[in-house]
Design brief:
Largest sheet: 3 strands, antiparallel
Structural class: alpha+beta
Distance between the termini: 40 Å
Mean pLDDT: 77
Oligomer: single chain
Helix content: 55-70%
Shape: elongated
């Protein structure tokens, strides 16, 4: 597997080459006779199996794949041969796709910043409310609600500074 400019190309050549490729069909038949799986086969059936085995051994499988916004250069040139201007259209499409991804990432980052800022502001307002309610309860000579509200208000502010945001 090789990488070129962000495009992965893979070319596989699978070739089944064994000793049987050089051996005559007759020799394969003799080998099959020794195999207990083929003991009930007739000589014609053994010959057919041997010929099939030799043909299957000589087959080759070629596969090529790629991933990324652009095809590899060898395939890219073929697009232009098939349809004039196709290569330019592919480049324009890849450029538009990259620009769109940049815009979407920018919007996501900006939305996260905005959401974080709103959360901090609302958390501060809520903490101030708890502290104000605690002061009011203390003014009314209600020590238990004042301490609960005060601890809640101060602990929320302190936990933000000590623990940080997770």
């Amino acid at each position: 597997m090789s990488k070129r400019s962000g495009v992965e190309t893979e070319s596989k050549q699978l070739s089944k080459k064994t000793r049987a490729e050089e051996i005559e069909v007759g020799e394969v038949v003799e080998d099959l006779k020794k195999n207990p799986k083929f003991k009930d086969f007739t000589p014609e059936q053994l010959r057919a199996v041997a010929e099939t085995a030799v043909v299957e051994i000589r087959q080759e499988i070629h596969e090529q794949s790629f991933s990324g916004p652009l095809p590899p250069p060898s395939v890219y040139g073929q697009y232009e041969q098939i349809l004039e201007g196709a290569a330019d259209r592919i480049l324009i499409l890849a450029e538009k796709n990259a620009e769109h991804r940049k815009e979407m990432n920018s919007k996501i980052v900006n939305a996260d910043i905005k959401r974080s800022l709103i959360g901090q502001i609302l958390g501060f307002i809520l903490s101030i409310f708890f502290i104000g309610a605690a002061i009011y309860c203390a003014y009314l000579n209600q020590p238990f609600p004042a301490s609960v509200l005060g601890v809640g208000g101060f602990s929320s502010i302190i936990s933000i500074f000590v623990l940080g945001r997770k």
